[in-house]
Amino acid sequence: MLSNRSQTSLQTADILIVDDTAENIRLLSALLLQQGYDVRKAINGKMALMAAQTTPPDLILLDVNMPDMNGYEVCKQLKADAKTSRVPVIFLSALDEVTDKVKAFQVGGVDFITKPFQFEDVLVRIQTHLKIQDLQTQLQAKNDQVQQAFDHLKQMQAQLIRKEKMLGLGQLVAGVCHELNNPMSFIVGNLNPASVYVETLLAVVNAYQQAYPEPTPAIAAMLKEADLDFVTADLESIIKSMRGGSDRVCTIISALRNFSRLGEAEVKAIDIHEGLENTVLLLGQRLVDKPDMPSINVIRNYAKLPLVTCSVGELNQVFLNLLNNAIDALERQFVQSPALDLSPTILLSTELTEAQTITIRVKDNGVGISETVGMRLFEPFFTTKPVGQGMGLGLAISYQIVVEKHNGQLSYRSTPGQGTEFVMQLPLTLTNH
Fold first, then answer.
1. Given Cys at both, which of 63, 199, 203, 252 links 19, Cβ 3.0 to 4.6 Å?
2. What range(s) does the Response regulatory domain occupy (predicted)?
């Protein structure tokens, strides 16, 4: 069911009738005015283009055969102009050849009605395409809001990179999440109604077809050539994309919230090796055999270490990020070079230095990191993973935890095609909290 606002919009829709026959214009205009539509008229192509460009209508009924400029050319120019490109065009013509109808759809028309026509048929098609246009407008508005949310996040990235330190990032990100929550709630809350609109539209079309199971030959030919199946599939695809986009933004907001609450973790003395082993256990399903690659071998080279006072949850998050990145690098290595005779391996090693700091190394023999990528490796939101598979926050968060929160160091060494080693250095006692 359409909202009250949408119903009102459809009832007062602005329809432009373009026909060089005055009688046709008078007939259609009178009938549409009786239905409550606003009607404008044009008797040739030039007048139609001027009227549409001055104030774009909600729908155009366009005759094909007109002097100077035929309907096909008018439609081409309408679709070439950004201001009028989204206005649906229904062709009205005495032409009944398949080639004429195909050409109408090729130049951008949404429907083709053959003269002489039944007004009930014209009215149903107008209502259908106005509803389709209304749904597409609503979906586009929601899509624009999602894009604005992503643009807002990208602007935040630029602000974060300019900061020499990330001490104030938590409060900043928390504010962004709060600001994004309202528009995202609106988007998510309207996805289900949008789906209902599509179902309603399909039901209307289906009911009309059932009410007229034996259409005239002209209508049957027109339905055969109509593009309603594509429009239906495209609407469903748009809604699916909207759901994916909103889920994506919600996931990013959740990650940013976690990012802004890093100071809440418990501080205590722990066994570093226990944290590493718990993380390996957590990632067990990613380490086993897969159809496209063998299991990943995890080798330990642990030194005898004292307990380390640290923020436990945060440090475990660093281990998780580094190990996940190592597994991703190994998987990409085997996708890019499936014939490579190589055993995928992750080496975990620890040592106690003379300066009484702990060194933790996570090394893999995956694809490695190029120098260009390495220059931006710890930037927030920077990722080399495909769209939808990474947010570019893992290493940025890890850097903040190790360097800013624990007064340690986080660096890496890598050779493209041979592997990467991340090196973390921590003091025995957390003094920066």
1. 63
2. 14-130
